[in-house]
Write a structure and sequence with these properties.
By secondary structure, this protein is of the alpha/beta class. It is built from 7 helices and 5 strands.
């Protein structure tokens, strides 16, 4: 018997996701990102995205794809497998997969979601994926941004705390 709390059952390869997609409740919502150091900003974003339709599919940048985003040599901090499990554990997420390209255009083309969602730190007119989604009648939505919540900001706070403790220990 499968454990109902095993989030790995919601993590699938891109090819498997394309097969599953036909059975998903519509409207289908798709979003993507790195989701490194999952935090409340990510959770708020994914919950908002899930309210835009009936099924939310999330695709994560593979490790090499995430590294090419220019967020720093140490990123991503956690592996693709770990990031997928964390996102899959959220109740608002139906399925999680990944892509290795810089943008998820191949997955978008295969899934043909009704709604494509990106975070408030993006501009609709600068998203090449928006035109692709519009080509089959879908729409792109920009989710509200929760200021002060980012993996980079969280990493800086953690590092500042570690630096402060190191100075105290040296005294």
């Amino acid at each position: 018997m499968q454990d109902k709390w095993d989030s790995s059952t919601k993590c699938v390869a891109p090819a498997a996701l394309l097969e599953i997609a036909a059975r998903l409740a519509r409207p289908l919502v798709f979003t993507n990102g790195v989701f490194d150091l999952l935090h409340v900003g990510h959770v708020s974003y994914l919950e908002w995205a899930s309210r835009q339709g009936a099924s939310l599919v999330v695709a994560l940048n593979g490790d090499a794809s995430a590294a090419r985003l220019g967020k720093g040599d140490e990123r991503p901090l956690t592996s693709l497998r770990e990031r997928m499990r964390l996102v899959a554990a959220l109740g608002c997420v139906a399925w999680v997969s990944w892509f290795d390209e810089d943008r998820p255009e191949r997955l978008l083309q295969g899934l043909r979601p009704d709604v494509y969602v990106k975070g408030g730190d993006y501009e609709l007119q600068r998203l090449p994926e928006a035109a692709l989604v519009a080509s089959w009648g879908g729409r792109t939505e920009i989710a509200p941004y929760l200021p002060g919540h980012s993996s980079t900001a969280l990493m800086r706070r953690i590092q500042a705390g570690a630096d402060r403790r190191a100075v105290e220990v040296q005294r």
